[in-house]
């Protein structure tokens, strides 16, 4: 009676957690949550991907990344009437205010957050369809962008992970 | 010694992946990501649901679906001062520009994306609470809408799947 | 031949489902989906967390919670030209209209939804970084807020759950 019954143990799924962020907005106030979450997750050992699409392209466009703005119009969170918010210069003023407050609290800039993200292994993907529609080229991007992919590739890489749409 | 020890193999979880999208925005630039993601996932064998709520109702409202707009105000991604963006006609112009660019790149229209979605088995659900609040009736919707459900039903159908809020 | 081969059954993962909502917007039309989903999930036995960040802070700020607004500008879903939407008073009017419609349909107020949420065990977390940047203090919040946490803590508590970014 020497039959060795090999019972394959239930695997403990030691696989890494995965966070996949779709960034569809091109404003400073939405770029921040994307990278804050990405970097926090990466620091905890997550595999992290950010897929830039639509207005989110601004954040990886080297001609725009340093001039991301906060919207002053249509954001009722700001204590000013809409007409005032619509005056030229108001968006710039609100953006400057937020940037100053962040600098005072030593919150890193988006450039710095991207640097940290890359060091932690976060992958940055540009949406190929958006590039076609907006006439963007690979050379328009910051060098930190890893590759250019379509929605199908993104779905594939997000399989089994958490997905956040910003 | 003929005992056959039947060891049930650890199941390979052959269950389908599931993607559930909540579309709460009624603009062209947010309807696109919803259907691009839905259709890419459906093409890969995912079970896909889209739950239309709040402004997202526009996308299934047969009186509005062909006139979805891109916001020109409060979108600092666009290279124009807010006051200019607030001039009547600017939203229409920006929308026309985007539609033209998309047509040139042979990006399907929202109508076409919905057709593809349905053929691939994507389910479209209208939010019952929003219908009550906005005074919408079933007859106001495009025929592709599958049913009218509440938040509880949506939570139930999304169980175990990925959820994206747009 | 009495060997008892103990085959450990594949566990049925009886763990609770978990829903983690990040609320980054400070408008009435986005606070509603957050609490409607949170409360529906909690009623079905989910563990539910809401993490308030950026403009979402308005929703737990006791000086602002009763005056959350719907944006009339930059929301092409509303049937009015942008310039009209930019006139002072329009945001207030649109907000009043929506509130009236909701009251008629007996949709609970945000205050009421928060009360229900808390009774159902939903946890409310304030983002520490946003507090620093915006100069907010614990005393500025409604008492229903459970604690103040950073992005890392949120990632940790969302592990294995569904994450929704609003």
TrEMBL record, chains A, B, C:
UniProt name for this protein: Peroxiredoxin family protein
Keyword Nucleus in record: no
TM stretches of this protein: 34-57
Record organism: Caldiarchaeum subterraneum
InterPro entries linked to this entry: DsrE2-like, DsrEFH-like
Record keyword Membrane present: yes
Keyword tags: Membrane, Transmembrane, Transmembrane helix
Pfam families from the UniProt entry: DrsE_2
SUPFAM superfamilies membership: DsrEFH-like
């Amino acid at each position: 009676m020497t039959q060795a019954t090999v019972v394959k143990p239930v695997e403990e799924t030691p696989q890494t957690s995965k966070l996949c962020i779709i960034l569809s907005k091109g404003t400073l106030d939405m770029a921040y949550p994307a990278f804050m979450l990405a970097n926090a997750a990466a620091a905890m050992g997550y595999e992290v991907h950010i897929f830039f699409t639509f207005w989110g392209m601004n954040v990886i466009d080297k001609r725009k990344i340093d001039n991301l703005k906060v919207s002053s119009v249509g954001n009722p969170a700001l204590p000013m009437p809409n007409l005032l918010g619509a005056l030229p210069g108001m968006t710039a003023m609100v953006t400057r205010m937020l940037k100053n407050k962040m600098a005072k609290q030593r919150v890193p800039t988006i450039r710095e957050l991207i640097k940290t993200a890359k060091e932690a292994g976060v992958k940055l993907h540009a949406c190929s369809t958006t590039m076609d529609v907006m006439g963007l080229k690979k050379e328009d991007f910051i060098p930190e962008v890893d590759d250019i992919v379509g929605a199908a590739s993104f779905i594939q890489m997000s399989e089994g992970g958490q997905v956040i749409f910003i």
